[in-house]
Amino acid sequence: MFSPQGPSLRELAVQALSSVERGYDLLAPKFDHTPFRTPDGILDATADALRPLGPFDRGLDVCCGTGAGVRVLQPLCRERITGVDFSAGMLSQARDAHPDGEWVRADVRAMPFAEAFDLAVSFGALGHFLPDERPALFAGVHDALRPGGLFAFPIAAPQPITSPLYWALLGFDLSMRVRNTLWRPPFVMYYRTCGLPEIRDDLTAAGFTVTTVPLTALGRRADGTPLCRLVLARKTG
């Protein structure tokens, strides 16, 4: 599961018993050697789906982590790329890997941007926000985009109840709820709070027009439906 350059079990345990911000600060130097980093296949499929909708001028990676989203934004955006995250450790890694980018430390629920970007992307971050926090996140992205701007992120299809992964994700979420009941500060990371219908409703309430496209390069389920879709939220006006 982890490469030899990845974190030890002890390091993961310390991270899991920290806050989200402190945990990612600790994990940052080894994050790209863990399965938590968004795989290149997902990044490339996202870039392929967005390419016909561009080109774009300025791009924003929301909850950028170590900067993996640069792989998507760089070939699509003609101007400067910006990443925003609240972990100083993750931003330090992103800055070292991509010195041409602009890396901003901020809480994405209150981003310091106003109509500055044409394209915003995000990868693997929604599970770090409780459902009642999503409206603030989406409102911040909406404010950061220029009129007509696009917010895009991949979302996996729900697992059937017969799938071992369904039970693995359910078990993980339950263990996180127990951990957050018994231990402070909380570490918010849930896999089953980000269903497409709920996300679509929250995006629409924030002022976006929402569509999806299948990321067929990532495969299909047994019933023929795509394993992953790209959510395309367009700021109207």
From TrEMBL:
Single Gene Ontology BP annotation: methylation
Ranges in a coiled coil: none
Single Gene Ontology MF annotation: methyltransferase activity
Gene3D superfamilies according to UniProt: Vaccinia Virus protein VP39 (3.40.50.150)
InterPro entries: Methyltransf_25 (IPR041698), SAM-dependent_MTases_sf (IPR029063)
CDD domains linked: AdoMet_MTases
SUPFAM superfamilies according to UniProt: S-adenosyl-L-methionine-dependent methyltransferases (SSF53335)
Source taxon at top rank: Bacteria
Keywords: Methyltransferase, Transferase
Domain annotation Methyltransferase: ranges: 60-149
Protein name per UniProt: Methyltransferase
